[in-house]
Amino acid sequence: MSESIGPVLRVIGCAEADLPAGPARQVAELEAAVWPGSSPGHDPALTPRTMLLVDGAGTVAAALSLLYKPVPLAGRTYRAAGLSSVVARPELRGRGLGGRLVAAARAELAADPAVDLALFSCDRPLAAFYEAAGFEVLPGTVLVGGTPEEPLATDHPGFDKVVLAAFFTDGPGRDRAAFTGVRVPLHPGDTDRLW
To answer: Which residues form the N-acetyltransferase domain (predicted)?
Structure first.
């Protein structure tokens, strides 16, 4: 995917495993600067896809990952995608670049017939940022990450998380109701514990 979003910047996306070395290095450096001690990359079982906002010289201004997995809930299995590792260059923050990239990710997920919904959590103060890009807060919803044997939930003591979603099914109202006010067994594993 390649979409022009400004006079110099464009959105590009590819499977994480296919990301060229230069952009991959830039993403790893950005993530390490924002989240010291983090390790780059995601669990291949979640089919990670990287989306970047880059300038004409190939400099990464913002990045995020899309992760995918089936989620059983309310008697069916949903094909879910989550946003992870959303980051913008610190010196470029406040210019709307992260919001443009998140909105582009939502549009890509909405256009993908293999995705029923986007589902992820964020720190409570960031909820308005994601809402501006078209996601909605699910009141009372808790994502249960980690593994069934070692769960990590968004209502873990010390966390101040909210769960956001966007529904792309034929019955978004019904599916929104199924995901509101419940504990969702996300269980993405040990690498991407809450995606």
So the answer is: 14-154
Report how far residue 192's alpha carbon sits from residue 99's, in angstroms, rounded to the nearest whole number. Answer: 22
The residue among 34, 107, 27 whose CA lies nearest residue 65 is 27
The single residue listed with the structure tokens 């199924």 is 178
Lookup: tokens for 102 = 């998140």
| Sequence-separated (6 or more) residues with CB below 8 Å from residue 26 | 59, 60, 63
Class of domain 2-185: alpha beta
Q: Is 177 helix (H, G, I), strand (E, B) or coil?
A: helix
Structure tokens at 179: 């995901």
Query: For residue range 26-68, what is the model confidence (pLDDT) as tens digits?
Result: 999 999 998 888 888 899 999 999 999 999 999 999 999 999 9
Dump the DSSP string for 101-164.
HHHHHHHHHHH-TT-SEEEEEEEGGGHHHHHHTT-EE-TT-EEEEE-SSSEEETTSTT--EEEE
* Pairing state between β 117-123 and 76-88: parallel
Indicate the DSSP class of residue 57. Answer: T
CA angle 46, 48, 49 (to 5 degrees): 150
Sign of torsion over alpha carbons 62, 68, 72, 77: positive
